[in-house]
Every structure is written in C-alpha cells, then in structure tokens.
Amino acid sequence: MHPKQLLDACAELVKRTLTFEHPADAVVSRFFRENRNLGPRERAALAETAYTVLRKKLLFESLARSGSGSRERRLAILGFAHSQEALARVAGKTEQGVKDARSFVRAALSPQELQWLDACEAVRPDELMEPHRHNLPEWLVAPLQQQLGDDFWAFAQSMEQAAPLDLRVNALNAKRADVQKELADAGIVAEATPYSPWGLRVQGKPALARMDAFTRGAIEVQDEGSQLLALMLDAKRGEMVVDFCAGAGGKTLAIGASMRSTGRLYAFDVSGHRLEALKPRLARSGLSNVHPAAIAHERDDRVKRLAGKIDRVLVDAPCSGLGTLRRNPDLKWRQSAKAIEELTQKQAAILASAARLVKPGGRLVYATCSVLPQENEAIADAFAAEHSDFVAMDAGELLAQLKVERGDVLCSGGETGTQYLRLWPQRHETDGFFAAVWTRKP
To answer: According to its UniProt record, which residues of this chain constitute the active site (predicted)?
Structure first.
C-alpha cells in the first residue's frame, strides 16, 4: 500500500478509536475485518499509529492545534511518524533502517505537512507543559504522584511505550529451554524472563500464530506479571481449584499446567463470551482438568455449592486495568474516578464471596491489574479486618519459597515491606499488578 493510502487509513482508524465508544482493540479488530486486503505490515502500522495517538493524546492534540487538514489526519501524521520509527527500533533495525522508516512516513505528506511535522518534532521535551509530558487524565495524576513521588515521571514515560511480548511456556508439555531453542531456530530471539520460571520475552513482534510451538500448545502469550499470579496460587496435583474471574483463561491455563492436568480446576466468569475465547486455547493446551462455567454473579448457586470445599482460589478481580496502559492506552481516557469507586464496591463483594469457597487450610489470592491503592491495598486491608479466619501470607516470603530470584523487589507494604506483590512497568518491565495472599485457618 502506498504511504499516502496507508496514512488515510490511519486517519480513519484514529477517528474511530477516539470516539471511545468501544475498547480500542475491538475497534482495531473490526477495522481489520472490514479491510481484509491489509497485509501484516500495514496492520502493524495502523494499530501502532492508533495506539501511539492514544498514548500521547494530550501532547498530540496540543501540537495538532496548528497545521492544516482534519484533526484526525494531523493526529494520525504524528502517530504514524512516531510509531514507524519505534517499530523500526523494536525490530532491531539499523540507523539506516530507522531512516528508511522516516522516509516512508514523509512520502505520505504534502510539503506543507512536512514543514508542520518538522516544527512539531523540533519541540523539546523541556518546553512542554506537564500534561503534555505525562499524557494522563487530570483525575489520575494527583493520586499517582502522591503514591509514586519522584518515580511518577518514570511511570508516565513507561506507559507511553509499547509493552514487550512475553510468552508462557506450557509446563505440561514443554520446557522453556527447548522452546527458546525452537524459536531461535525460527529466527526469533527470546530471553528467559527474570522472575517467572515459565516465561520468555521475545524481541520484536514476530508472527507466532502459525508456529508449531503455538499450534501444539507449547506457548501462550502472557505478560510475566500475569504468570506470577498463577505461580503464587501454587496449585498442586489433585487439588480442587477455582479461578473465580477467569475471563479468557490465561491464568487458568497456567494453573492447570502447574496441576499437571490433574484434580479439578473451575474457570468461573460472568461473561460466557469471554469463556468462549478459552475453548480453542484449552484445546491447544492439552489440559483435561479445566471446567469452564458461566455464572450469573458472585453469589451464583454454582458458587454456593462449592463453599468450604476448594483448596485454592484465585480472584483476579474486575478492575480499572490501569496497570495495562502500555497495551490498552485507551483505558486512561475511558475510566473515571467515579468508575473506580463503583469498581471497588464490586471488588470487595467478589472477594468476600470467593473467600467462602476456601476450605480450612486453603489459599486465597486476590489480584488486579490496577496500580491504584483503592483497588488493591485498601480492598485487601478491609478484607483482612473483616475476616479473622484468614491469615495473611507475606508475598516476599512466598516468592522465595517458590524460588523466584530477587522476589522481594517485586513486593511492598506491611510491616515487612514485602506483604503484597506490587509490580510496576518502570521497575519490573511487567504490566502493573497487585496480589495479596491469605491462608484460611484450619
């Protein structure tokens, strides 16, 4: 596709995503279905342009006040220019390759647009107002600054970058070193993740769906932080386990593999549609111990029947998702302080209901992919205060028992400073995650 046509398509996609009527990934997927003639490179350029605009929305909107053409086109030009250079660098291109990427972008522009883009790129970071540097909604800035202090700017910068591609090796039927070699033989560079024993971090964004390792279920795409949540549940062979908010089942599959496909693993979710997405992944995985079940709510009769019978329960609660802004940058524009308040009420109710399933001596893990204390420590502390039959486990000690090297650096809070798992993209190169762990008294 000619650069001019590609830029026109980018402008249309940017226009659609900025309505915020639907999640950005759904908008992008629909756009691709409507334009099936697009090749892999064109799809990558389109998606990254749209996501770059979402990541740097406040800055780009400020710059787009000047220039000519529609607002969406000006935003698309900025997103296109930034994303093409970023894609070239992620792919490990030489400086000449990066220069070629810039030339590709510039071939789509009129002389007037070229002049405008040059002026935009000449603006120095120290000349920008704070909102144009952090690109976060106003309601979110103060809480994060209070929480992070001097680390706020590192966090803001990290959230403007695309997340790395992490894989989880299926421990049921593959070994990490073997899969790493298989990927290397296919020209894909992957390194062992520093914390998860199952993880590989891939260089670039290679196509994996047609690889034998993927089709036979040896690998799944999963952030290292998400893998650690499944690891902390530490499900054993033959146990009864519940993934209470299973969604599409990424953690369910990791848990099932750690159980060696024995016992019984219930994957509950209120969305049957999300559970449908688990089916092909489950078929590839080789697991036979997973039992997906759609429930109406956290007090569903299916849940009540399991009260006091479950060895381990994971509650990956519905949350703001603000720890995943590298992957889902639209969330910061689609969430609000009021929405967070409503979520915390739901989180507390779900955790309390899920706790009833845990048998004496069993384990309960509460987790989110949020970075906000009100969805994390506040929920955990309130639960602990109201449930004296649950004893808190120290996350740092648990990770040490699980032989996670330097696991203490992944934790914070409590008297020990390692009470909770607390993952940050700027510190740990994972999505933002939180986890609290309890054991029910015998």
So the answer is: 369
